[in-house]
């Protein structure tokens, strides 16, 4: 959906910087650490999974190390991409010192598979996001057709705040 979006670039306030440093960055770092540990453990165990057909033969050690190298390369690519999206882009947004203020039309209000209320808005091309999770208290005041004013970081797509216009 290609929507016309009212978009302004404004400087990041000191309150936003405190919110990013104390709330968003630790969550990103914690998630990246857990995901990296999972992939590193999975890298060692993945070649031993039943689909690899490792038998006790002379080439089974070579088969294990070829599988280990494949899953290791895959894990490095995934972890590198997640580091880029979570930490690097967030640091680039902080260095730029700017955030986008978007006025978007609410398409509908719904629930996701985790029974959380969410707003589905007209999706701009950049930054790429289309859903905003709501708290239980604020979900009753939104309807389709409302205008949402959303403050978002440009490169990482992190939503800083949103309010009804």
Produce the secondary structure layout.
Layout: E1 6-11, H1 14-45, H2 60-96, E2 98-111, E3 117-121, E4 131-133, E5 147-152, E6 159-164
Antiparallel strand pairs: 1-2, 2-3, 2-5, 3-4, 5-6
Helix pairs in contact: 1-2
Walkthrough of the structure:
42% of the residues lie in helices and 24% in strands. With 165 residues, it is α+β, with helices and mostly antiparallel strands. It folds into 2 domains: 74 residues; 83 residues. Strands 1, 2, 3, 4, 5 and 6 form a 6-stranded antiparallel sheet that branches. The chain is elongated. The protein starts with 5 loop residues before the first strand and ends with a strand.
Topology order in helix (H) and strand (E) letters = EHHEEEEE
Quantity of strands, as a count: 6
Gross geometry: elongated
% residues in beta strands: 15-25%
Low-confidence stretches: none
In round numbers, the mean pLDDT is 78
> What is the total number of structural domains?
2
Decide which structural class fits the backbone: alpha+beta
The tally of helices reads 2
What would you call the quaternary organization? single chain
Helix content estimate: 40-55%
- Spatial extent as radius of gyration: 21 Å
Biggest sheet overview = 6 strands, antiparallel
**Kindly, what is the distance between the CA atoms of the first and last residues, rounded to a whole number of angstroms?**
22 Å
